[in-house]
Amino acid sequence: MEHETTATGLKVSDLLILPGVTPERHKLLLFRMADLDPSTRNSVEESKIFFMMADARFTEPDVERPATDAVHGQATGVVDDDIADGDVQIVDINGYTMRHLAHVSIFVLRVYMKFLQEAYPSRLRAIHIINCPSFLDRMMAMMKPFIREEVYQMINYHTEGMDSLYESVPRDMLPVEYGGKAGTIAEIKQHWLQILKDKTAYLSDDKYWKVSSGSKSRWSWF
Questions:
Q1: Domain membership flag for residue 222
Q2: Domain count for the chain
Q3: Does the residue 219 lie in any domain?
Q4: What is the pLDDT of residues 101-110, one digit of tens each?
Q5: What is the pLDDT of residues 167-202, one digit of tens each?
Q6: In a domain, 217, yes or no
Q7: 107 lies in which domain range?
Q8: pTM of the entire structure?
Q9: pLDDT bucket at 209, cuts 50 / 70 / 90
């Protein structure tokens, strides 16, 4: 049943790691609802899929290597120079309604934000929210208690189309559906679903997922 629930979560949500890095060496991540029906939302599964996708992402180089240097299929093949200098998240909330808010778990939201701000292996550089609804202020009011001020200041709202987003991130790096040249959403998603499938043994091996009690907050490194 757990695998079925995760498969459903992967189907109703698009969590995409876009190819390449920006001129600043930032990685672009895109999140959107693939199914707008509020009843399909599942905060636990959506967060689990994000964590799983993030774990798989760091087994592949962010920065494309020359073909002769490529290393595939091994978690240990990625070195520091392969990792982007930070992440830029693009969140498309097209179709989001107040009914969707009713399906958000405050507990899961708190855990998700704590992970993103304290344990995520790549530093967050910016968040761009596109296709903002009229009730955005109420949605952000619910989230603000869990967001550190320095992160809150990174959030950019795009309320008048995509042009302002294009001023912040390279347009060509976006999926075709967003005016870019990175391939279609379906193609990018299928690429990462295959990586998840190929990395199943690694992702399910507990020896890779232990946290030291003395670990520092990643934010304290900066």
A1: no
A2: 1
A3: no
A4: 777 777 777 7
A5: 999 999 999 999 999 999 999 999 988 988 888 887
A6: no
A7: 2-63+74-206
A8: 0.79
A9: low
| CA gap 78, 219 in Å, rounded | 22
Whether residue 43 is contained in a domain is answered as: yes
Residue positions counted in the chain: 222
129 vs 97, residue with greater confidence? 129
Bigger pLDDT: 67 or 98? 98
CATH number, residue 163 = 3.40.525.10
